[in-house]
Amino acid sequence: MGTMFYGGSETPVHIDDVALAHLKIVIATKLRRSESFTVSWRHQDDEPGGRSTIWLHPSIPLRFVFEHPEPTALDRAWIAELANSANSSGGITLVADQVHLSGGPVLTPVKPDGAAVPS
């Protein structure tokens, strides 16, 4: 399981290495172009109700940490779907029942049609 650290947040976001590798490509591409966008998810049942959204911006520090040292094989179609989501007004949405901060289950991106993207 990988981890994404964003801004000054003390709460890491844990994401499956395969999903994180694909997200990293889309995030890095958009930020390199100075394009900002959002990533959203619903809170888990054991957390206060609601949802969270982070605004990804080139001026905010971001770090990706992967559990496995070997690079992940990338799926171009998945990257294209994530990029399309990032370009939409809703941004990238992560599967609600797999989201947890500070060491919980894995965040998984969702296709624009709402289906989970397999990792």
How are the secondary structure elements laid out?
Elements: E1 2-6, E2 13-15, H1 17-32, E3 37-42, E4 51-56, E5 62-65, H2 76-87, E6 92-93
Parallel strand pairs: 3-6
Antiparallel strand pairs: 1-2, 1-5, 3-4
Helix pairs in contact: 1-2
Features of the shown structure:
119 residues, alpha+beta, 3-stranded antiparallel sheet
Protein architecture, described:
By secondary structure, this protein is α+β, with helices and mostly antiparallel strands. It has one domain (2-98). It has two helices and six strands. The chain has helices at 17-32, 76-87; strands at 2-6, 13-15, 37-42, 51-56, 62-65, 92-93. A three-stranded antiparallel sheet has the order 2-1-5. Strands 4-3-6 form a three-stranded mixed sheet. A hairpin with a 6-residue loop joins strand 1 and strand 2 (13-15). The longest helix has 16 residues, at 17-32. It is globular. The termini are close together. Mean pLDDT is 78; it is low at 96-107.
